């Protein structure tokens, strides 16, 4: 207890940073190497993967602010405030803050708004999150676990693709959860109010980014209390000022999302239970695809149609899930041993954190995308790193049994890394060979380049997956997304102006069926209807467009 409540050093906070960097030279060197490898590995994905609707949405809002453009149409729930006469994004949807837009601002301001800048910027933020994580683990457990966790995480296809092509606001969530862990760990050592305030700010901004961040907060809090109930209780009682500061900063930074919570939960209650039939089965399928590295490959196979992802087996596989299960068993033995000695520590924290966060995702309504299951990260990687470190530090390394355990732990980690990289590269090769399918096709980018400055055109989207990409990639045409009216059951009338171009997907990649209905109606109304289609590298039609030949 004396150690817990020791008086903080009198030196300036900056001195702690210098000492931290000096002690972590090895971890920093590994992180730099990991970052360089990740950037090189990301290049094919940045170049060959088409721009998804949700990914483009953040780029569109950021670009509008920098250019001072007031867009005619955004997603329902999107809100901006007037800042220097420009629309500064605050919310993308009611449960989704515009934190990612703010993170894109420096890159767009310096290098311009483009797909490459957007993706490399988000990769950079993701790697900074990994750095915070590795430094935190280095402080808590040492360099071995920090390096193994970083390696297994960066190579993971389930982490890599949502980081490079961030369509679910995963990167801000990951960055701020890792930053929060780092600053909380720093506070635990130094006992300075500044670090507690920074931890509260990181958690608050993570919550502002997306409401489901509450799963991360609850998992971390519950896991810490399970491991150190007395220490936490004593700290809250004796250092109430610091805890009040942290909570206050959290509430201040997360206040806009807290205000929106009531409306969001009310909308959840209004949804009928039948609308979520089969959700649990879908979640189990997503968990399996995350663990075997096949999620993004499956998504690319069906052109972004989530409901078709699991209709066929995936050709890629990684042993990550199998090794994670073995690692959990290893830590379970440690937990039992700790319980006998009436001490609980790191193993319980990791296993409880993974279990509680997984349960949170399973219980979270409508959490049926990979970025929801990534709320459990980095617990899986930390568990594997902890088990590998435990095996490597076998009490009898010179005996045959100890040597076998060491070799097996090394093989397991290398197996995960090799499996990750192979699954990742096979996915990239598939995307490069096809040119993308459906909403992820590069064909839409080529079309956008052709019409980029055509201010005489009006582009109307009759299916999901066009409007935000074209808003980000073009400057000239006027753009309208008719899908919002159609989804609400409000039919639209097609204007017969010859400069109006209507976009639809073929049935294979269409999310809704009304696009083809409008195409057939337009052909009946105008036998001379001008129509065309765009294909990907494998010759498959990925989208169609038409316009009337006369008024």
Summarize the structure.
The protein has about 550 residues and is of the alpha/beta class.
Description of the molecule:
By secondary structure, the chain is of the alpha/beta class. It folds into two domains: 13-48 and 114-269 and 277-434, no CATH class; 439-547. It has helices at 13-23, 25-48, 53-67, 99-111, 115-141, 143-155, 157-164, 170-190, 193-209, 213-227, 229-238, 240-253, 255-270, 279-291, 295-301, 320-340, 346-363, 370-373, 379-392, 400-434, 443-451, 467-473, 483-487, 514-525, and strands at residues 79-83, 86-93, 96-97, 458-461, 478-481, 500-504, 530-535, 541-547. The strands form two sheets. A five-stranded mixed β-sheet has the order 5-4-6-8-7, with helices on both faces. It has a three-stranded antiparallel β-sheet with strand order 1-2-3, covered by helices on one side. β1 (79-83) and β2 form a beta hairpin. α2 (25-48) runs antiparallel to α5 (115-141). The model is unreliable at 1-11 (pLDDT under 50).
């Amino acid at each position: 207890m004396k150690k817990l409540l020791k008086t903080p050093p009198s030196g300036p906070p900056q001195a702690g940073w210098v000492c931290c960097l000096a002690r972590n030279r090895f971890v920093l060197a590994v992180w730099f190497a990991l970052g360089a490898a990740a950037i090189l590995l990301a290049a094919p994905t940045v170049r060959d993967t088409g721009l998804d609707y949700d990914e483009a949405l953040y780029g569109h809002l950021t670009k509008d602010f920098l250019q001072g453009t007031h867009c005619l149409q955004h997603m329902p729930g999107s809100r901006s405030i007037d800042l220097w006469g420009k629309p500064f994004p605050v919310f993308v949807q009611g449960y989704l803050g515009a934190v990612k837009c703010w993170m894109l601002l420096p890159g767009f301001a310096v290098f311009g708004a483009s797909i490459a800048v957007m993706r490399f910027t988000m990769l950079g933020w993701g790697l900074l999150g990994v750095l915070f994580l590795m430094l935190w683990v280095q402080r808590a457990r040492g360099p071995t676990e920090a390096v193994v966790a970083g390696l297994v995480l960066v190579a993971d296809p389930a982490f890599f693709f949502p980081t490079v092509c961030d369509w679910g606001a995963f990167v801000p969530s990951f960055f701020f959860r890792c930053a929060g862990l780092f600053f909380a760990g720093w506070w635990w050592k130094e006992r300075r109010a500044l670090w507690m305030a920074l931890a509260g700010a990181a958690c608050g901004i993570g919550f502002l980014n997306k409401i489901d961040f509450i799963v991360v907060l609850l998992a971390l809090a519950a896991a810490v209390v399970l491991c150190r109930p007395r220490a936490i209780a004593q700290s809250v009682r004796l250092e109430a000022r610091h805890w009040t500061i942290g909570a206050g900063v959290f509430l201040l930074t997360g206040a806009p999302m807290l205000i929106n919570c009531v409306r969001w939960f009310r909308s959840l209650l209004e949804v009928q239970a039948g609308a979520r039939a089969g959700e649990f089965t879908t979640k189990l399928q997503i968990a399996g695809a995350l663990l075997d590295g096949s999620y993004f490959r499956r998504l690319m196979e069906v052109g972004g149609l989530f409901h078709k992802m699991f209709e066929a087996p995936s050709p890629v596989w990684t042993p990550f899930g199998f090794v994670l299960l073995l690692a959990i068993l290893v830590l379970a033995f440690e937990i039992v041993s700790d319980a006998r000695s009436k001490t609980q520590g790191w193993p319980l924290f990791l296993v409880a954190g993974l279990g509680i966060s997984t349960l949170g995702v399973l219980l979270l309504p409508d959490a049926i995308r990979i970025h929801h299951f990534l709320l459990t990260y980095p617990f899986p990687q930390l568990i594997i790193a902890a088990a590998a470190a435990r095996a490597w530090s076998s009490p009898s390394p010179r005996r045959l049994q100890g040597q076998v355990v060491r070799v097996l732990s090394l093989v397991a980690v290398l197996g995960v890394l090799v499996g990750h990289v192979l699954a990742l590269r096979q996915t990239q090769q598939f995307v490069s060979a096809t040119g993308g399918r459906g909403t992820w096709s590069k064909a839409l980018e080529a079309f956008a380049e052709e019409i980029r400055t055509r201010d005489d055109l009006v582009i109307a989207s009759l299916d999901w997956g066009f409007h935000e990409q074209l808003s980000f990639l073009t400057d000239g045409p006027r753009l309208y997304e008719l899908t919002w009216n159609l989804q609400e059951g409000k039919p639209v009338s097609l204007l017969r102006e010859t400069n109006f171009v209507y976009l639809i997907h073929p049935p294979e990649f269409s999310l809704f069926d009304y696009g083809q209905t409008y195409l057939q109606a337009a052909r009946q109304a105008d036998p001379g209807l001008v129509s065309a289609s765009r294909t990907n590298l494998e010759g498959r039609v990925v989208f169609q467009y038409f316009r009337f030949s006369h008024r």
